[in-house]
Amino acid sequence: MARGNTSTRADAMYARYSSEAKRDSTSIAVQIEACEKSAGTLLRRYIDEARTGRTMGGRGQLLRLLDDARDGQIGRLFVYKLDRLGRVAETHVLVEDLESFDVQVISVTEGTNALAREVQLVVAADFSRVLGERTRSGMVQRHRQHQWTGGEPPYGYRVVQDAAHRKRAAVEEIEARTVKFIFDTYLGESVGLGELARRLRERCVPKRRDGSWGQTNVRNILTNRMLIGKVRFLRRSFRLVKSTGKQIAEFNAEPT
């Protein structure tokens, strides 16, 4: 049972900006403004930035909110939409937990009706699933059209836009010279990866990121099949571990 006098409890808000920012553009600032306008006062803020709503793992501010609610510190909790608490239908359990601590949960855009709340959460879960499937299908289609499907290109390439505004991989000339040096040296001399990395450091060859050349960097270039024209897609799938909020890469049996 929650502790604390109701009159001394704080009004609070929870806001979350998804890690899938392009698919979820409700900014933290918009959520704060809407919640505090609805409450008519400044609110104690619990904010998780760039966190998926599919799991509680990694959302430290949500966990802190639950602890404070359990300790009787929270009277009313404002959210922009209920899916800020989570995208899956099981979010209604989280709301029920908060209500068991005598916290009134208020969605400033959806109201407080319990039946409407559960319907909205189920719809949000289905929307998330459909959106994920559409995104994956779009990436597959771009790959078939020889377009760049996203992410950072490997060393030796850059992403450009053609006349039709389609993104494609193109050779990065400066990096390409380094790639040629690595292959020529590795194939023409009896040297290992460590020696190659040392020579790159000696030449002060820049990397894309901070740090010096190491064996792993050289190995990644020598084993990159894209450098011989073999572009593979859907080699890996990512599985979400709900307990940690992290995604684990798993290799597919038959890469495309």
Structural account:
With 256 residues, the chain is of the alpha/beta class. The protein has 2 domains: 6-127, 3-Layer(aba) Sandwich (Rossmann fold); 157-231, no CATH class. It is built from 7 helices and 8 strands. The strands form 3 sheets. A 4-stranded parallel beta sheet has the order 2-1-3-4, sandwiched between helices. Strands 5-6 form a two-stranded antiparallel ribbon. A two-stranded antiparallel ribbon has the order 7-8. Helix 3 links the parallel strand 3 and strand 4 (104-107). Helix 6 (193-202) crosses helix 7. The protein is elongated, with a radius of gyration of 25 Å.
What ranges have pLDDT less than 50 throughout 5 or more consecutive residues?
none
**What's the helix count?**
7
State the distance separating the first and last CA atoms.
54 Å
CATH topology type of the largest domain: Rossmann fold
How many E-type strands?
8
Strand content: 15-25%
Helix and strand content put the structural class at alpha/beta
Order the strands across the largest sheet as they lie in space.
2-1-3-4
